Amino acid sequence: QDNGFEQFIINYCNEKLQQIFILMTLKEEQEEYVREGIQWTPVEFFDNSIICNLIENSTTGILAMLDEECLRPGVVNEDTFLTKLNQLLATHKHYESKETQNARRVTDTSLPPRCFRIHHYAGKVTYNVTGFIEKNNDLLFRDLSQAMWAARHTLLRSLFPEGDPQRVSLKLPPTAGFQFKSSVALLMKNLYSKNPNYIRCIKPNDTKSAMVFTPELVLAQVRYLGLMENNVRVRRAGYAFRQLYGPFLQRYKMLNARTWPRWDGGDREGVEVLLAGLAFPAEELAFGHTKIFIRSPRTLFDLERQRQERVAQLATLIQKMFRGWRCRTQYQLMRKSQILISAWFRGHR
Q: Which stretches does the entry tag as region Actin-binding (predicted)?
């Protein structure tokens, strides 16, 4: 109920993770349809970049203003920090405080003084600025670092490399918010270089009991994770499966006599001929520039079922041909041996 500096930076990290989820799944999902020339109805989804920018902008972001207040000479406290936020973010639609509400003549008893509220992606969160300056200005004094580095213990030296006299810097140590922002940026860079797969965990109940589902608890988690708004709507509006024409043709070409065992034309033409012979509904398929799109998993399951049946038939055919070849070869050897034996016997007689 009482959120301070720790909850603020944790929720900032959650916003960044949600942003990468939006960009790398939902936005990419829709952009792929545009690249492939697929006709479909775009789904509107909320891009939380405006919230991330509110927190991390290098000039007007909350973290930047907090660092500025920590490094400013003179009397500095949370009141001056909150006043500065109210001045610069008075018109921001995802920020509000008691002062900004009063300016808009809004009465809200749930927002106390010395607090500000951010409209996060998952909902509104109120933060108490008490302790923000002290916790952000988490400075490790230089003489303490030098003393720890001078210890003979190798582990202590490795933990305080800034205490090395040869690496003395006149710069002030970075604030806690700056270090956390840098760590989040490094994490985002690492994630953007990967091909992520998401697993969303839903807690079914608060009692840790098996086979017990609390609908209100599950619904709240689904709503805060954005599953209904984004994933389900985008997947329903789009296509559940997509694959390049070449691999798709290689996997399923045995289902059509015209494409099996060899197709001499282009990959797209081969896929069109293949699927035309399977008589799937037209609305289930879409042909992009480089990929085939299948709308429902049921159609894909049907394809896999037919392929398994066809593979079994082909395996039986191969076994039949091999057994026939082996029997014919054995018979020819026996016949050749019988003729040879008969010839020698008649010659001897």
A: 184-206
Rounded CA separation 308/301 (Å): 11
pTM of the predicted structure, to 2 decimals: 0.64
Return the CATH number of the domain spanning residue range 239-348: 3.30.70.1590
CATH of 5-193, picked from 3.60.21.10, 1.20.58.100, 3.40.50.970, 1.20.58.530, is 1.20.58.530
Cα Rg, the chain, nearest whole Å: 34
CB 175 within 8 A of CB 70: yes
Beta bridge partners of 116: 97, 127
For 51-73, write each residue's pLDDT tens digit: 999 999 888 899 998 888 887 77
Q: Which two tokens stand for residue 102?
A: 């009063």
**CA proximity to 17, closest of 240, 238, 179, 226:** 226
Cα–Cα distance between 291 and 303 in angstroms, integer? 16
- Pair 237, 40: CB distance under 8 Å: yes
Q: How far apart are CA 149 and CA 108, in angstroms?
A: 52
Apex 11 CA angle, 7 and 15, nearest 5: 170
Whether residue 23 contacts residue 46, with contact meaning beta carbons closer than 8 Å, is answered with: no
Report the sign of the C-alpha dihedral through residues 290, 295, 297, 300, in that order. negative
Angular region, 311: left φ>0, alpha ψ -120 to 50, beta rest = alpha
Token output for 94: 């995802």
Q: Which two tokens stand for residue 43?
A: 């789904």
Task: Determine the Cα–Cα distance for residues 290 and 36; give it in Å rounded to an integer.
Answer: 7
- Helix, strand or coil, per DSSP, at residue 185: helix
* Span 245-267, pLDDT tens digits: 999 999 999 999 889 888 888 99
Residue 143 has pLDDT above 60, yes or no: yes
